[in-house]
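Preliminary data (for renewal application), flavin-adenine dinucleotide complex.
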Amino acid sequence: MRHTRHGWWLEEAGEVAPESPLDGDTAADVAVVGGGYLGMWTAWHLLALEPELDVVLLEASVCGHGPSGRNGGFCETLWGDAPTLREKAGDAAALAVCRASEQAVRGIGAWCEANEVDAWFREAPMLRVATTESQVGSWDDTVDAAAALGAQKEVVSASLEEVRARCASPLFLGGALYRLNATVQPARLALGLRAKLLERGVRIHERTAAKRLGKDGSVEARSGRVRADSAVLAVNSAAAGFPGYRLSLAVASSHIVLTEPVPEVLEELGWTGGEAIVDSRTLVHYMRTTRDGRIVFGWGGGAMGFGGRTSDRLELAPDVIERTQQSLLRFFPQLRGRAVTHAWGGPIDVSPTHLPIFGSRGRVHHGFGFTGNGVGPSFLGGEILARLALDRRDERTGLAIVEPGRTLFPPEPFRYAGGSLIRRALMAKDAAEDSGRRPGAATRFVASLPRRLGLHLPR
Ligand SMILES: Cc1cc2nc3c(=O)[nH]c(=O)nc-3n(C[C@H](O)[C@H](O)[C@H](O)COP(=O)(O)OP(=O)(O)OC[C@H]3O[C@@H](n4cnc5c(N)ncnc54)[C@H](O)[C@@H]3O)c2cc1C
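Predicted structure:
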């Protein structure tokens, strides 16, 4: 097994030569900081709105080599957040966000087609499954929310037979189907987008970390400075390192193991429809297939900290990978004796509400908090940030995920100590439930803290 920092997707997509770092001072209409999906979609939508715009994008490493190039490739809507949206913003606003997130999923598919980027975009419903009795029906609030919003087809309960007909894991006990979902090869999407931005004339400077953003829209890096009318901060979990954002998000990590091609196992499971699957644990497992017949299997149970950063050491945590591999075999015992070829991980930007957050402070516009669901919603985020940067208001900037009101994570001493304590409790709770036991009272109490804090855990 190869345990790499960047993962298999980027290997499969092929290497790119980095663009030159920023060298000296320059001026631009908009400076985008961060070359993941969010920063790159923002640049794309800026040019869609104003083709003559001069856009500079600064990326600390190489565009698409962060989580955008190494995630699970679930391209989801925000229907899973419908209950929270209804509670926080009301029915009309909740429906508007969910529908806009559907347009984002379709928008990515249409973009790939129009730009001839083969990112393995494949539409198929997403399955949320139960693997323990305690998880059965945990999706009811989402099914109910979709129905209450007049969109009952978007999320529906699925019987044990319906679930097993799509994927016959012996662990599955029932579930729910999310009608609109897609899977992508995430690195092909990210690098395809990077290539199109370069073609369109966006000035991309890689290996250039922004150190400071001025409220006037200027951006400073060690090797130079960009004077711009507005700046966009799209750096995922690194936002916690910028003044004023420290307590706006928490940082966790997610990890993936990948099998060798196993098409005959997929046939045996009946898992040939391209469904993305997620279980209903607190620290979720997620799984999907690839075009060449592999299984991608991930676990959102890595590091957890409040207002801090995950380090590379945690991204490569061997104990987390080992647990993930063990879980893979529990889900699919047919894989015994088959090779796991790659493993990798990366940071997750957890928002207090599980929903992404967009907004502005002076001429700096920010987006973060995808909480493990950024592939689809970052397209929408790019539409929003492009409009904020150009000071245009429309139905996109009026969505309830724009300036949603400030919810913060607790300050010290809760951060790291609190994060690892809660992670241990969540692991103990999930383990007890996996083996059919009720977790102890202390475990239940500590494990309930994230929800009390408004923290919904990511994958
Ligand atoms: C293992 C894993 C699995 C996941 N699975 C899924 C999934 O299946 N579906 C899903 O929807 N989401 C998933 N996610 C989350 C998803 O990858 C993210 O939500 C999404 O990529 C966020 O895009 P982004 O542009 O905000 O962040 P990123 O891709 O992290 O991009 C931010 C960029 O900013 C750069 N940067 C940081 N600091 C600076 C600085 N100071 N100056 C300049 N640049 C800087 C970074 O180098 C990085 O390239 C997963 C994440 C991980 C780690």
